[in-house]
Automatic annotation (TrEMBL):
Domain Pyruvate:ferredoxin oxidoreductase core: 63-166
Name of the molecule in the record: Pyruvate:ferredoxin oxidoreductase core domain-containing protein
Pfam families the record matches: PFOR_II (PF17147)
Organism lineage: unclassified sequences, metagenomes, ecological metagenomes
Record-linked SUPFAM superfamilies: TK C-terminal domain-like (SSF52922)
One BP term from GO: response to oxidative stress
Length: 192
């Protein structure tokens, strides 16, 4: 990578006279990378038979309520969905596989028919209104979908979350979907 006979500068300092232009170019390049991520995911799927999109959707086609989550908690949410659907709650899951660039349009299209959404954040953003995933999703779907969105901050410090816990969350947002009443938009789940 380094060629002493042909030196180059990588990551030069950008002073105030061009700094804004550089940052805008970085932003535009990152936005364009979403298409590349999708294309590579499809190509990988064609080769291996395992498709990796920016999002994983589970039983969202007829869902009235949904949970949006990152990471391994999605497996627990899937198990809870299978259980709670037997009780008549049309629940679904949206798992984000990509956080940057944020797949805004895919999220809007996936959640456009649900009435209430629980965002599950496994981190907090101190001093902010909710966790990072909540902030991103809520601002992305603002005025695009008609659903109440509640943040559940959970699992901090490695605290476990169970299928029963997820069912409690689904029951809460199911009630919200019927009443459109939300007491707290940001909740710390299972805090003693």
């Amino acid at each position: 990578l380094l060629d002493f006979n042909n030196p180059i500068t990588i990551g030069p300092v950008a002073l105030y006279d061009y700094y804004m232009e550089h940052k805008k170019q970085e932003h535009e390049a990152l936005k364009k990378s979403l298409r590349i991520v999708k294309d590579v995911g499809k190509e990988f799927g064609d080769i291996t038979g395992r498709n990796y999109d920016t999002l994983t959707r589970y039983k969202l086609d007829d869902a009235e309520v949904a949970i949006v989550v990152l990471g391994s908690t999605a497996g627990t949410v899937k198990a809870a969905i299978d259980s709670i659907r037997k009780k008549g709650v049309k629940a679904g899951l949206l798992k984000l596989r990509l956080f940057r660039p944020f797949p805004r349009e895919d999220i809007i299209n996936s959640l456009k028919n649900v009435k209430a959404i629980a965002i599950m954040d496994r981190s907090d953003s101190f001093g902010s209104f909710g966790g990072p995933l909540f902030s991103e999703v809520r601002s992305s779907v603002f005025k695009k979908i008609d659903a109440e969105i509640v943040d559940y901050i959970y699992g901090l410090g490695g605290r476990d979350i169970t299928i029963k816990d997820i069912e409690v969350i689904f029951n809460e947002i199911y009630e919200i979907s019927k009443t459109a009443k939300v007491e707290n938009y940001v909740k710390y789940f299972n805090v003693r």
